[in-house]
Design a protein that fits this description.
Elements: H1 3-16, H2 19-26, H3 30-44, E1 49-50, E2 57-58, H4 60-88, E3 91-95, H5 101-112, E4 118-122, H6 125-133, E5 139-144, E6 151-159, E7 185-187, H7 194-207, E8 214-216, H8 220-228, E9 233-237, H9 238-244, E10 247-250, E11 256-264, H10 267-276, H11 278-285
Parallel strand pairs: 3-4, 3-5, 7-8, 7-9
Antiparallel strand pairs: 1-2, 5-11, 6-9, 6-10, 6-11
Length: 289
């Protein structure tokens, strides 16, 4: 039986002295209040009200039970209030700094429709999982090999001038293949992870580029500045190239992609990001662009 609902009806009727008024106070129809109180009486094996008078008067058993019933109702209301506050408690998520403001705002808006309130903290790939372990965030979008991730974002190279062909072969950057300074490929901090950086370095060595022709930049801004002022290339996603106004092509010698998984202190937080909010998270990361 619904013990809390029965006690709530019992308390409201006792306070008003009327089944009709008590039902209105409990915000339920009068027949429902009567049924709940009758069920409570059957449960305890005693009557709660003397029904021989016009007013709903408590029996001796009802008077003895009323204080405990009030405490139960108050505790139930406090529990509902605490549950509502817990749902509104922000869920802080560590995200890459490559996520755009608009995409994060759309993700937060979609989450609110599911009563999830998100806050974001940008951090480099090597720090995001650590923020979960130190409880500074509840969840993090972690950098993983694309084959192990929930989301995969294709990477290529982008420059100021549109390159010929559908792909860019890094071997074309070898010294002597073109006049002028040696062109470089800039790796931004988000891609300074083994499953991206090491693959690019292996291609560099295989095709005979100089070590300095593949460099890790201090920030995306500094990498983009180098590209804007030269014929250098930026390793990036399609979405980033579009945002920066650069011409993007995949790399001919190797398939490159960012992979992302979820680390969270609570399994339900991780599952929410992987399933309910999967598409919105993907848009933030640049999936499908």
């Amino acid at each position: 039986m619904d013990l809390v609902g029965g006690c709530r009806a019992f308390v409201c009727v006792s306070e008003t002295g009327s089944f009709t008024a008590g039902a209105a106070l409990a915000r339920i129809p009068q027949p429902v209040a009567s049924r709940r109180i009758a069920a409570l009486e059957r449960h305890f094996g005693e009557t709660l009200f003397d029904r021989s008078t016009r007013r709903a008067r408590l029996t001796a058993f009802g008077r003895d039970l009323l204080p405990s019933a009030k405490r139960l109702v108050q505790l139930a209301e406090a529990l509902e209030h605490d549950a509502h506050r817990a749902r509104l408690r922000p869920m802080r998520v560590a995200v890459p700094d490559t996520c755009g403001v608009r995409e994060l705002a759309e993700l937060a808006a979609e989450a609110r429709a599911s009563e999830v309130h998100l806050e974001f903290r940008t951090a480099p790939p090597g720090e995001r999982a650590a923020l979960v372990r130190t409880s500074e965030v509840r969840a993090a979008l972690t950098a993983v090999p694309p084959e192990d991730g929930v989301w995969a974002v294709p990477l290529g190279v982008a420059g100021v001038v549109s390159p010929p062909g559908r792909v860019v072969h890094l071997e074309t950057l070898r010294a002597g293949r073109a006049p002028g300074p040696r062109r470089r490929v800039w790796i931004q901090p988000e891609d300074d992870v083994p499953h991206v950086r090491d693959r690019v370095l292996r291609v560099r060595d295989t095709v005979g580029l100089q070590p300095a022709q593949v460099a890790v930049a201090e920030s995306l801004t500094s990498a983009a500045a180098e590209v804007f002022g030269s014929a250098d290339l930026l390793l990036c996603s399609v979405a980033q190239a579009e945002e920066l106004g650069l011409h993007w092509r995949p790399v001919g010698e190797v398939h490159l992609a960012r992979g992302y998984g979820v680390a969270a202190a609570l399994g339900e937080d991780a599952e929410r990001l992987r399933t309910v909010l999967r598409d919105a998270v993907g848009r933030c990361l640049g999936v499908g662009r």
